[in-house]
Amino acid sequence: MIRTLLLASVALSMSSAAFAQDVSVLRIGLDGGENEADQLRRSECVAEPLKAATGVSEVQFFPSPDYNGVIQGLLGGTIDIAIMGASSYAAIYLQDENAVDPVLTTQQEDGSTGYHTIMVARADSGITDLASTEGKTLGFADPDSTSGYLIPSVALPTELGKPIDEFYAETGFGGGHENLVLGVLDGQFDVGTTFGSGQGEFSEGYTSGNLRIMVDKGLLDMDDLVEVWQSPIIPNGPLMVSNKLPADMKEKVTAFFKGLPEADFECFDAFTAGGYTNFVDADQTMYQTIIDARRSVIGS
């Protein structure tokens, strides 16, 4: 009886191992930073070449209304690949440090791999600097956003000289970066936190980031906004690959995306939302300061 059970256990283990190596579908998570239709449109160009590079029969996209949906998918193994902000990676790492590997990150034209929180207000609001935001309403993008919540939560109290909830009349969340900026324009918030490269001209939405994406889509006229505050530099978010994938599949996925800027720059530009020149190698150590910050502010 014991021998039968052992043989059954070994057979099941071998069957599971064989199944684990037989990956026929790759699932890409989209984090809800902008509306679903635009995210899908930007990302669909990677599907066919990724299939060819990895040998899978299908590439599926899973848009989420918020960052947490993709975080949970990566933790649970229902999503294989995602490019997200550093705080989202930190959230995954703090719950299961072996769930994903951050394999690549984006690089700007000057070789830098960072960006900034950009706090904005309506140009006609009378708000001109951080001091003039006292007693106003502050909108954050998403509780799992690095630039839209984590970094402001860490940096602003020092800048303001008091806790955020004592300086502002009210705080809230806009439901992603695009909606946050629209909320500022519509008067839902007096000021709000989004992100940009900090390079180039503010009047153009900088060279990359949410403001530039919205300008390029015709959703935003930068003359309607004023910049109130810019954070210290934040590391660009990683492209993460699930460790539930077999090692050889992870290598194929990483190699595909690393080679994408040279193979099809237009697709790379669309997939990364524009303003970047390359993918470069990344690892956990690049995000340790963000992991530590998230642990201290949010806890997980």
UniProtKB/TrEMBL annotation:
The keyword Signal applies. The keyword Signal applies. InterPro entries: PhnD, Phosphnate-bd. Pfam families: Phosphonate-bd. Keywords: Signal. Residues 1-20 form the signal peptide. Belongs to the phosphate/phosphite/phosphonate binding protein family. This is Phosphonate ABC transporter substrate-binding protein. It comes from Devosia rhizoryzae.
